[in-house]
UniProtKB/TrEMBL annotation:
<keyword id="KW-0597">Phosphoprotein</keyword>
<protein>
    <recommendedName>
        <fullName>histidine kinase</fullName>
        <ecNumber>2.7.13.3</ecNumber>
    </recommendedName>
</protein>
<dbReference type="InterPro" id="IPR035965">
    <property type="entry name" value="PAS-like_dom_sf"/>
</dbReference>
<keyword id="KW-0547">Nucleotide-binding</keyword>
<feature type="transmembrane region" description="Helical">
    <location>
        <begin position="322"/>
        <end position="351"/>
    </location>
</feature>
<feature type="transmembrane region" description="Helical">
    <location>
        <begin position="279"/>
        <end position="302"/>
    </location>
</feature>
<feature type="transmembrane region" description="Helical">
    <location>
        <begin position="372"/>
        <end position="389"/>
    </location>
</feature>
<dbReference type="Pfam" id="PF02518">
    <property type="entry name" value="HATPase_c"/>
</dbReference>
<feature type="transmembrane region" description="Helical">
    <location>
        <begin position="6"/>
        <end position="27"/>
    </location>
</feature>
<feature type="transmembrane region" description="Helical">
    <location>
        <begin position="429"/>
        <end position="451"/>
    </location>
</feature>
<dbReference type="GO" id="GO:0022857">
    <property type="term" value="F:transmembrane transporter activity"/>
</dbReference>
<feature type="transmembrane region" description="Helical">
    <location>
        <begin position="155"/>
        <end position="173"/>
    </location>
</feature>
<dbReference type="InterPro" id="IPR004358">
    <property type="entry name" value="Sig_transdc_His_kin-like_C"/>
</dbReference>
<dbReference type="InterPro" id="IPR038377">
    <property type="entry name" value="Na/Glc_symporter_sf"/>
</dbReference>
<keyword id="KW-1133">Transmembrane helix</keyword>
<dbReference type="InterPro" id="IPR003594">
    <property type="entry name" value="HATPase_dom"/>
</dbReference>
<feature type="transmembrane region" description="Helical">
    <location>
        <begin position="73"/>
        <end position="93"/>
    </location>
</feature>
């Protein structure tokens, strides 16, 4: 009569199904499925469908039978949680990602900075979820026995457990490090949701169109069977409904499998947005089928208990396909949940029970040890679920089992909300509240379940309280109330440690974390690795440090204290992903401690706040946004200030380094912000450290040699109070580059000196002129008087010769001296003409060696000035060039127009001028020539004449760098404007 399957058939189907599931996971892990699809929000949303476990697949029909529309609570509760995603789920996702917390226990251990919190959460989670695991096992065993008509549940259950253990290990514990995301798992669970949807949808559609004849027939039937409808309505007003809503709301976040899929395995944070409406939609589709299945089974008078109506429908209409569809759907729901739940729980047990008690020796391969321990735990947890199932002797309703589990997890809701919204909560409050809630739960729900007793004396209500199917919600409310009350009171009346407060701030929604600024004992990543090698082994430590550096995009030779602090935080987060936050915290605190001496100075990291504010920028609104704009404006002002600005914290850590500073020092801000002042490269370190230590506030004209060039700097400093560390003083340094001014001043001083020497020379020349004329006269007389006296005549000739020479010097001295004082006429001068004259004059001197002069001046180049004086300039420059040139050398005079000025260029191919004397060329009396050959006044005169003409002079030597010879002198003179039109 009825469709019947053999046991082996069903087991084969189950194995095949699980193999297919594993195949899907395997394929996606091999990367055969495009990343685009793997990270698609739809995949994520479907993977969250793990929520619909066997309990939802089978149990909700039973619930609809029992509670009427109350069954919708499971759908509405979780939808509520997901619709609140921006304020509820997204912040948790952020914390989970930032600190690599892979479970609720991790989250609590991190937030309350307490291993006990994590352990307690794990223990209770385990205890609370055993009924849920048992439920899945029971549902599979029951459905098999319904289909085979053989009461073989227990052995079937064991076989199923063995199978699923194997697959769970394959899914989740194949990888070396636990923090690796299981892309394959995500995809497999998403696939499973599709299977469930197809199964439930198919059965629902069959119910609508197969059992009933479409919606109209259903309407008809409902009218005839009013009781079926009223049964759905009546209990809505009562307590269980609201409690169910709350319970399912909480389960969306706190259930380990939901937490695991929603946060830990999240591949794409943005997918959360889609899931916030996608998951409710998916669950709506699931629940649409429920009343249809219920009514059709009522109509057909299905023989199974209402809980298995989904399966019963197929049996009632004797359709093998339908029954099998229901079986596979149920199997998929159960296995999906078991796999994810066990993975999540095994991670929790590993991190919070095993690792705090025993840590693997540093010599071994920690990754492998972790993998195998986790496998063992998976085995143990599934076995425990099986044990629990056996303990209950399969006599419980699915919905009862589910509710006990859901109420247990409800106890974690207050603490979860406090993580986000109540920074004052502390670990004592959490532990006390949790213990109280769990105690009430155990007494009022777990014990009755275990003892299989229906009546139990519960002192809380001080009356005889009968626990039955409808009053469980009182137990739920009582446990939650006790929990919240004690949690709040204890938190309010006890103090939290500084560590905990900082963790609380880190977790609170929209809080910018302000890490403390202390100095670490280890000063380089290498030291980090060396320290961590003690507990982790050298290989693992090195790997972890490298990984953290990579995550932060820091170089391997990083030494900035700020960066090292971030490295430490990152290491803690990464290790937390590997071994749980308690152990990670322990390791980091013990092996990467802060310097104890620096403890006194605890301030907050302004730079870090700044970076975080940048991230938050787009999310700020109202006053906060305006303040942020103001902050940016001020910051901009400082950054763009045309003066170097650098601010220091009390411990001389560089907090700001503006653009002018970057330009001046050629050190990018990126490289110095967060490091100590004494870590700056030379010569800046010496300069700034010295200035900071000085007791004066301004330092003028500090000379600094930068790449062989002298720079002059003015330094200023002022103390500023650090806004986030009252009582400690930072410093702001201002550095002004006054090199330009200094050079101008030097020039001024130089010409001033020249002028004063000129005046002196004039006076001396004048004074010497008269006696010399006297001596010349006397010598002349003597010569004439002693004509014929050879010796005396010879001597007087010598005297005359020497006095001539003295007069020549005096002459040039006079002309040099008068250069600065004489007013000269300004007229148009043709440079080509002047050059021709000068060359002509020089050529008269037959005594010196032969050189060739080339006059290449453009005849149209006119300047305004004094032709005589300009000729003097050229004569001096040309004679210098001739002196420097070898025999037969060439000397070119040329001119070039540059805007409003004309450049007169004298170029030779001679010896060139050594760099060392370049600075002194224009000094009067500076010469390299033999005594009697040069006076050293030539260039000095040129300089003062050019100056008189408002011109400039510059020297290039060597002019021909390839031959290392020659000199080029450029004299820039103002152009005569109408020159070309006036003159021929
Ligand atoms: P003097 O010619 O009397 O030595 P100057 O003031 O004219 O004095 O020149 C100063 C010095 O500059 C010279 O002694 C010479 O060493 C150097 N000097 C000037 N012009 C040239 C040049 N064209 N090539 C090489 N050295 C030069
Ligand atoms: Mg000269």
């Amino acid at each position: 009569m009825l469709t019947s399957f053999s046991l082996s058939q069903l087991l084969a189907i189950s194995t095949l199904y699980l193999l297919a599931l594993f195949g899907v996971a395997w394929i996606s892990e091999r990367g055969w499925i495009p990343r685009r699809i793997m990270r698609h929000p739809l995949t994520y949303t479907l993977s969250l469908g793990v929520y619909a476990s066997a309990w939802a697949f089978y149990g909700t029909v039973g619930m609809a039978y029992q509670y009427g529309y109350g069954f919708l609570a499971s759908y509405l509760g979780v939808s509520g949680a997901f619709l609140l995603a921006p304020v509820l789920l997204y912040p948790i996702l952020r914390i989970t990602h930032t600190y690599q917390l892979s479970s609720l226990a991790d989250l609590f251990a991190f937030r309350f900075r307490s291993t006990a919190a994590g352990t307690l959460t794990t223990v209770f989670m385990l205890l609370g979820l055993l009924p849920l695991l048992a439920l899945q096992i029971q549902s599979v065993a029951d459905s098999i026995s319904i289909l085979t008509h053989e009461p073989l549940q227990e052995r079937v259950a064991l076989a199923f457990c063995g199978l699923i253990t194997l697959f769970t290990m394959l899914f989740g514990a194949r990888h070396v490090a636990t923090r690796e995301k299981h892309e394959g798992l995500v995809f497999a669970i998403a696939f499973e949701s599709v299977v469930k949807l197809v199964a439930l949808g198919g059965i629902g559609l069959y119910a609508l169109y197969g059992v009933f004849d479409g919606p109209q027939d259903l309407q008809q039937w409902l009218l005839q069977n009013q009781s079926a409808l009223t049964a759905l309505h009546t209990p809505l007003q009562e307590g269980p409904w609201r409690t169910l809503l709350l319970v399912f709301f909480a389960s969306a976040i706190v259930m380990p499998h939901m937490y695991h899929m929603a946060f830990t395995e999240n591949l794409n944070p943005r997918a959360m947005v889609t899931a916030s409406w996608g998951l409710p939609l998916l669950l709506l589709l699931f629940s649409l089928a429920v009343p249809l299945i219920l009514w059709s089974c009522l109509k057909l008078g299905a023989t199974t208990s209402p809980e298995y109506f989904t399966l019963g429908l197929g049996i009632a209409v004797e359709s093998e396909t339908l029954a099998l569809l229901a079986y596979v759907g149920g199997l998929s729901a159960a296995s999906g949940l078991i796999i994810v739940l066990t993975l999540a729980l095994s991670g929790m047990v590993l991190n919070h029970i095993v690792l705090p008690l025993y840590q693997p020796p540093a010599e071994g391969n920690i990754y492998r040890w972790l993998k195998w321990t986790r496998r063992g735990l998976i085995c143990a947890i599934i076995l425990a679920g099986y044990g629990f199932y056996r303990l209950l002797k399969a006599e419980q309703d699915l919905s009862n089992l589910g509710i006990v589990a859901f109420v247990a997890t409800l106890q974690f809701l207050p603490a979860t909300l406090s993580v986000l919204y109540w920074p004052n909560a502390n670990r004592r409050g959490f532990i006390a509240g949790l213990l109280a809630g769990m105690l009430v739960w155990a007494v009022s729900l777990l014990l009755p379940l275990l003892g299989n007793v229906q009546t139990l004396y519960v002192p809380v209500f001080s009356t005889v309280y009968v626990l039955d199917d409808t009053s469980w919600h009182l137990a739920a409310i009582a446990s939650l109330a006790a929990n919240v009350l004690i949690f709040t009171l204890v938190s309010l009346f006890t103090e939290a440690s500084a560590d905990e407060v900082s963790a609380a701030e880190a977790c609170a929604v929209d809080n910018v974390r302000r890490p403390q600024r202390r100095e670490l004992l280890a000063v380089s990543p290498q030291e980090f690795a060396a320290q961590l090698a003690k507990p982790l082994g050298a290989m693992t430590a090195q790997k972890e440090v490298e990984r953290a550096l990579r995550d932060l995009h820091l170089p391997f030779d990083e030494r900035r204290p700020y960066a090292l602090r971030r490295l430490r935080d990152r290491l803690e987060a990464n290790l937390s992903g590997l071994m749980g936050p308690s152990v990670a915290q322990d390791l980091v605190e013990n092996f990467l401690p802060y310097k104890s001496g620096s403890q006194a100075y605890v301030s907050e990291d302004i730079h870090f706040i700044e970076t975080r504010l940048e991230d938050y920028h787009s999310r700020l609104t109202g006053l906060a946004a305006e303040l942020d704009t103001l902050r940016r404006y001020h910051r901009q002002t400082l950054q763009e200030l045309p003066m170097g600005v650098c601010s220091l914290a009390t411990d001389q850590e560089i907090v700001m380094w503006n653009h002018a500073m970057e330009d001046l020092t050629e050190i990018p801000a990126q490289q110095v912000i967060g490091s100590r002042l004494d870590a700056l490269p030379s010569p800046w370190r010496e300069l700034l450290v010295c200035f900071v230590d000085l007791n004066i506030e301004h330092l003028h004209k500090q000379r600094l040699n930068l790449d062989g060039q002298a720079r002059w700097l003015n330094l200023h400093k002022a103390a500023i109070e650090e806004p986030l560390a009252p009582g400690s003083n930072g410093l702001v340094l201002l550095i002004e580059d006054v090199t330009e001014t200094q050079l101008l001043e030097d020039k001024l001083v130089h010409s001033e000196r020249l002028a004063s020497i000129g005046r002196l020379a004039a006076g001396v020349a004048h004074e010497i002129g008269n006696p010399i004329t006297g001596i010349a006269c006397l010598a002349q007389n003597l010569k004439e008087e002693r004509e014929g006296d050879g010796e005396i005549e010879e001597a007087s000739l010598q005297i005359l010769e020497q006095t001539k020479r003295v007069s020549r010097i005096v002459q040039s001295l006079m002309s040099f001296a008068h250069a600065g004082t004489r007013t000269h006429n300004s007229e148009p001068v043709c440079l080509a003409e002047v050059a021709r004259e000068a060359i002509g004059l020089l050529s008269l001197n037959k005594r010196s060696h032969d050189v060739q002069f080339f006059n290449l001046c453009h005849p149209d180049h006119w300047v305004s000035g004094d032709p005589q004086r300009l000729a003097q300039v050229l004569i001096n420059l040309l004679s210098n060039a001739r002196d420097a040139s070898p025999d037969g050398g060439t000397i070119r005079v040329s001119s070039e127009q540059q805007g409003d000025s004309i450049e007169l260029i004298v170029e030779d191919e001679g010896s060139g001028i050594p760099r060392a004397i370049m600075d002194r060329l224009f000094e009067p009396f500076f010469t390299t020539k033999d005594p009697g050959k040069g006076t050293g006044l030539g260039l000095a005169l040129v300089y003062s004449i050019v100056e008189e003409h408002y011109g400039q002079i510059s020297i290039d030597s060597p002019a021909f760098p390839d031959r290392q010879c020659g000199t080029r002198i450029r004299v820039t003179l103002p152009r005569h404007v109408e020159a070309t039109s006036d003159e021929p």
